[in-house]
Amino acid sequence: MKMFDPHIHMTSRTTDDYQKMAEAGITVVCEPAFWMGQPRTHASSFEDYFLSLVGWERFRASQFGIHHFCTIALNPKEANNANLADDVLAMMPRYLEKESVIAVGEIGLDDQTDAEVYYLKKQVELAKEFELPVLVHTPHRDKKHGSMRCIDIILETGIDPSLVLIDHNNEETIEETLRSGCWAGHSIYPETKMDEERMARIVKRFGPEKIIINSAADWGVSDTLMVPKTVAKMRDIGVSEADIERVVWDNPIAFFAQSGRITKSALEKDVLRDQTQLFSGNSVLRGQTPQVDSI
Amino acid sequence: MKNYHHEVETLIAELQDRMDENQFSTLAAFIQPAAIADNNILTKNFSGCGRRFKMIQADKTGKGYQRWPTEKLARCTLATLAIANRKPTDAAFLLDDLFRKGDLHEQEAVLTTLNFFPDRSEFMDIAFEALRSNVVPVFASICCDNDYPAARFSQLYFNQMVLKAIFLDIEVARIDGLKERLNPQLLQMISDYRDERTIANRSVPEGIGFIESLNSGVNL
Lengths: 295, 220
Known about the structure:
- By secondary structure, chain A is an alpha/beta fold.
- Chain A contains eleven helices and ten strands.
- Helix content of chain A is 41%, strand content 16%.
- By secondary structure, chain B is mainly α.
- Chain B has a domain of 122 residues.
- The interface between A and B is medium-sized, with 23 and 19 residues.
């Protein structure tokens, strides 16, 4: 079964991760622009990061036979940095035109400040202008209230809820998210957020409609194989193969295909893995024999 | 000197041939003089050619421009018009921006556009930057089917480009002006590389034999 991890920060991961993901059946990833663990001090640092998402990281994924796409945004944490927020927003239109950019995100709320609300609305307007879906980060603290507040603010802009993926849901938020007409994303983490067993039970209970799962793996304690591991748990408790496939393949494709920039038929084609190629003089290999095949 | 006006007319005719009415009206808006003259609008549209025109198929059995991906045709049209519309320093600034902030397909289009301007030295830095890339399609866009290197590169840079093409297993027959730019230093480099491969019991790339065959009958 092919799998799509629709929220994973590969910039923070190693080639070992790409190798294991490819072996586990992950053939497509979407990398949302996010916080790098510490605040950036210049708006131009965002631009180099955006360029790496549409350039280097795409190339690196292709070396392991994985399709790589991304979402572009000013993340909610750094929306609070008044010195650079407007400059980042000003550079976004150029990047929202790039063909591998399939949504605006991660946008949303974190501390739920006025600045976060302001830039959340501004970026939903950008998504409407570029006819892109939005990927929404919901707060880790004050989870239930913060998630509902995100949905209310976003839908007040008039965007079609089917263009909105509310991420980091749990048992307490999923019903409200689905009732709103938005898609419900779930980040499966080894210890926090949501684990594989709980997620499998959610799919069993609510079915696969508009349910999406991801690893959200980043620079912290996280696991790039959480999508395949959750597939195994879903099988263990008797979720049908058809429903599993909807959750880990059909649904993320259907959501992001609303960008008009990906199609299921294109994603079902294999990527030629050619590790003899380099990127700006840099290879992902360190002395190994390059592998050239089709995964 | 190449007539880029003629090239643009040919590119637009090929685009019109491939596009439906809606698609061509989008292109027509992109190439309006006001849209070409404004750097902010042009850079956005240059990126946007990918998602708007990528799905329009090229004739892979055709010749020349007919084989080019549609988004590349469109981007080269925009870049050529933009260069024609600007003073040399402004054109160089814009093209450098399009190259540095472009994804791989955008970078390829910038480099292909240089083929229309082999007489313009202000684009040398972009061409040299592309030479440092080992992303094969990007490097190949300056190295192959492009008059710019033979017209503008010093012997040192031209030789390095040819040698790198052999390293990357690129078809050296596609290097424009190769026969005319052959020189003793290049032939020595090629010969040294052949020896290096032979001593290491490795295969000798086909490009070496091709260049040596070009040399037969040429007075250097």
